[in-house]
From TrEMBL:
GO BP field: base-excision repair
Organism: Lactobacillus ultunensis DSM 16047
Record-listed E.C. numbers: 3.2.2.-
Name of the protein in its database record: Putative 3-methyladenine DNA glycosylase
Molecular function GO terms recorded: alkylbase DNA N-glycosylase activity; DNA binding
Annotated keywords: DNA damage, DNA repair, Glycosidase, Hydrolase
Domain of life: Bacteria
InterPro entries: Formyl_transferase-like_C_sf (IPR011034), MPG (IPR003180), MPG_sf (IPR036995)
Family: Belongs to the DNA glycosylase MPG family.
Pfam families per the UniProt record, alphabetical: Pur_DNA_glyco
This protein's record includes keyword DNA repair: yes
Length: 210
């Protein structure tokens, strides 16, 4: 399946949930990456937590308005975050990849994270981008297939979670309780690389089926 079809044929929340367990790879000379274990859906103009709420549009969030499968990278302070636009052009919805379980290029990712390793390597969206060595918005507005990023859509390469949890998104303004509480964050139950996963909840099998 091509990226345009994948990122437009379903609702954004369903796309986000389906991404859990798929490989995300950044290959800019060396293959770095792992399995997506946590992601959040942003539902566009009606979603008070979305950068495109009420139709806000600027150079900073233009990626959300492009066709599904377009990369949207945004920054907060010195940190960078990886999103992919969902839906048709001008329907500004997207998915934020929050964490991966690292598999490929771990030594290089540790160097990129200044020696951080274990769960601290990629258990958050800014940490994941640091592990990839990304410190700019250079790949913003690029289509996935025209970038060093790959999301493997082959179901034969997907890891299957024992359970996917749907929970409220992280850091959403509580002034709008309806959207703050919507269960639009999906993650692998018990996976240690999920952001803020408590030690007592971590599973030895990382929450995957055999």
């Amino acid at each position: 399946m091509d990226y345009t079809t994948y990122f437009t044929q379903n609702t954004t929340d369903k796309i986000t949930k389906d991404l859990i367990g798929r490989p995300l790879i950044f290959n800019n000379g060396e293959k770095l990456g792992g399995y997506i274990v946590e992601a959040e859906a942003y539902m566009g103009k009606k979603d008070r937590a979305a950068h495109s709420y009420a139709g806000r549009r600027s150079q900073a969030n233009e990626g959300l308005y492009r066709r599904g499968g377009t990369i949207y990278i945004y920054s907060q302070r010195q940190y960078f975050f990886f999103d992919v636009a969902c839906q048709e052009e001008n329907e500004p919805q997207g998915v934020l990849v929050r964490a991966i379980e690292p598999i490929w290029g771990i030594d290089t990712m540790i160097k990129n994270r200044s020696g951080k390793q274990g769960v601290l390597l990629t258990n958050g969206p800014a940490k994941m981008m640091q592990a990839f060595g990304i410190h700019s918005r250079h790949w913003d507005l690029h289509f996935l297939s025209d970038s060093p990023f790959t999301i493997d859509l082959d179901d034969n390469h997907k890891k299957i979670p024992q359970e996917i949890i749907a929970a409220p998104r992280v850091g959403i303004n509580q002034s709008d309780p309806e959207w703050a509480k919507k269960p639009l964050r999906y993650y692998v139950a018990g996976n240690p690389f999920v952001s803020d996963m408590k030690k007592r909840d971590m599973r030895e099998d990382h929450g995957w089926k055999e």
